[in-house]
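Operator note (shift B, R.M.): manual run for Mid2 domain-containing protein requested after the automated queue skipped it. Running by hand, logging everything below so the morning shift can see what happened. Input copied straight from the record, untouched. If output looks odd, do not overwrite the archive copy; leave it for review.
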Amino acid sequence: MAQTGVAGVLLGPLTTTWTMPQSCSIFMPGCSTCDNAYNGQSCNPTSGGQVMDNTACWPPASSGVASPTWPFVGWGFYSPGLACPAGYTSACTAVYGQRPPWSTQFSLVPSETAIGCCPTGFACANVNGNTCTATVTHSTVETAFCSGTHLVDVGAATLPTIITVTTPETSSGTTKYWESSTSTRTMILYAPMFQLNFHESDLPASTTASSTASSTSSSASETGSGNGTSSKSSGGLSNGAKIGLGVGIGLGVAFLLAFGAFIYYYRRSRNNAVPLGSELPNNQISVEDPQTPKIKQSPGQIYEMGVYHAPAELPGSVIEGGYQDSPPGSESHRYT
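Run finished. Output pasted below as returned.
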């Protein structure tokens, strides 16, 4: 039966890792063929060696806290509680005002958080109070039994196990008939849960500062993004910065390729141009490029083939101070 809504007993603070005695990790079945076992128990001398809850298997309580009567049905909680005992882990968490993942036995107050500490591999439950449970099908469990005030038959039980049970069926005179049956045994294990309560103000300053810094960094990043300003992430460049860097590099490479092509074709065009040199006979210009013709005919006056005669003045009468033109009717002759 679950126990919920209990105010609980404040057992004291638990801020450091506590280690329980070795005997507290031994599971004690109710019988050699039982399929359940409990740890955190002892052989109680006042009850003739009966298995009972052991307060020595709980982290130390503050002075003045009364020991519970058997069975515990949950003893109390630790506050501030910041560290699970050795061999235990944080198996569940409950926050005030939110639905917890297990039926919490002890109520929380505003702004309070509770941690359920269980042995590694166990889950949080409420079996007559805060309890840790695990169903073992393939494992080895250390078990023992009480004989008076001492533990006996301490050893490792390998599960699953085959159990043979023999019971008397009938008897006829002095002859008895027995019936045997076998079964495969698994085991349900139970361990006390230690509930640790704390407020945010109970956490170490370094933890609070780290949480605050993380929240501030996140808020600053969101604010910068909303105002159009850039902010650097502590983890490296943002995706936008990486994309911008890639685009910039691509444009730079493209510009260098284009500039190189421009220089190449510009020099090539200059090498192929006709150089300005001295004139040769018949209006010819020398071209120095070995890949082009040596002589290039430039535009000029074209003459017809024939005999060239130098021009000469026609004969005439010598007059005083020069020649007199030929009289009308005289002819000039052209030698051919």
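Quick read of the result: Residues 239-272 form the longest helix (34 residues). Helices lie at 205-226, 239-272.
Leaving this for review. - R.M.
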